[in-house]
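Researcher: Quick one. two chains, 425 residues in total.
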Amino acid sequence: MDFVFKNKRISGILTILPKKTVKFEDEMANYSFSPAKCMKLKLAMGYKEHRIAEPGQCSSDFCKFGLQYMFDNNLIKKEDIDALLFVSQSADYYMPPTSNIIQGHFGLKHDCLCLDINQGCAGFEIGLIQSFMLLEQPAINKVVLMNADVLSPKVSDQDRNSKPLIGDAASITIVEKSNDDTTIYANIKMDGTGAFALNIPAGGFRMPSTAETAIMEQDAVGNFRSKNNLVMQGDDVFNFVQREVPPMIEHLLKQADVDKDWADWYMFHQPNKFMLHKLADKLGVPHEKMPANIVENFGNASGVTVPTCISYNLGDVIVNGSSKLCLAGFGVGLTWSSVLVEMSHLMFNQIVEF
Amino acid sequence: MEKLIKKLEEILETENLDVNKKFQDYEEWDSLAALSVISLLDSDYGLPMKYKDLIAFESIKAFCEDVLCRQ
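Model:
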């Protein structure tokens, strides 16, 4: 499904990372791999260290910290927030929505649309597209898009598929109306027949958490998980990404009538270095135009990886100047989405620690 | 077939691959080796395959024949 937007801009990105760093080597002993095998895994996937929230820290806490930082530094005014989006798979409660809790915490105005969106790896692109759609309304001039996930407590320590790469983080992006009439191109695709390629079996209404769902079981390749843990069918995800993402990007570029050189940067979701290099090769994009350094430094915090990638790799480059970006997210849902946008003279683009 | 076997020898870290054996008979066979095979099939043969497909082959020879006949 294709989208076209005009007169919208991204005016600021703040990435909020946990202070706590965990090294791959510190967790190796939990995996059913020899140390030599673990080092091979580390090298192939590009694992080094990842940022993990402290026990008790929820994704909303990172959002609150980031918003407070923005208010304190005059990066946004409370009364200017017409919509507050919270894109996450780690909401505080089933009810109420986490976005409402955050609105209440800061005493934001009542004329503010609060919206929780359950999305993961493509959460930044989905959130941007939703923000752009809301900005079509006369009453909405400024949207605050929060992407946040603290999923590390849901990943088993004995799961070498997912534990070495999981990261916790949040980002806050300001999306607003603008006089700039450059076109923003985007697309979204979904395939619910693959909904369980990434999932947490227990804890929802379908299968509530019980003593039984907490029992650890071994899978076919030696990982231990309970039904309360996140589980990823790595081979399905790999095949899905390699099959669907390159044609999606080709389609996006065609829609915009530009070639691959148009984009200065390919800021993609960060599953691991191995998959990103495969994608770059398939697309014929040089590795240096598709940064793959987020998992090794911070971990994969689902929908937060793309803003983290922008904050970490571009920083003031798009505050003092501009860059043409091709953004893409792909994963849980299954959902895959991409956005072609020029980011120019942002008010801020930085990382803070909480 | 020779080209494919050479690649498999690299992945399984062996010089004389016994094609009558199964993948899981090799000591070097694990989830990372499986991903290397899945990735090889994707990049060189445009063929999606799952982990459980790989270990279901009665021999590496049967696997190779399947890959090549689906070309």
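Chain B has a mean pLDDT of 91.
Researcher: Thanks, that's what I needed.
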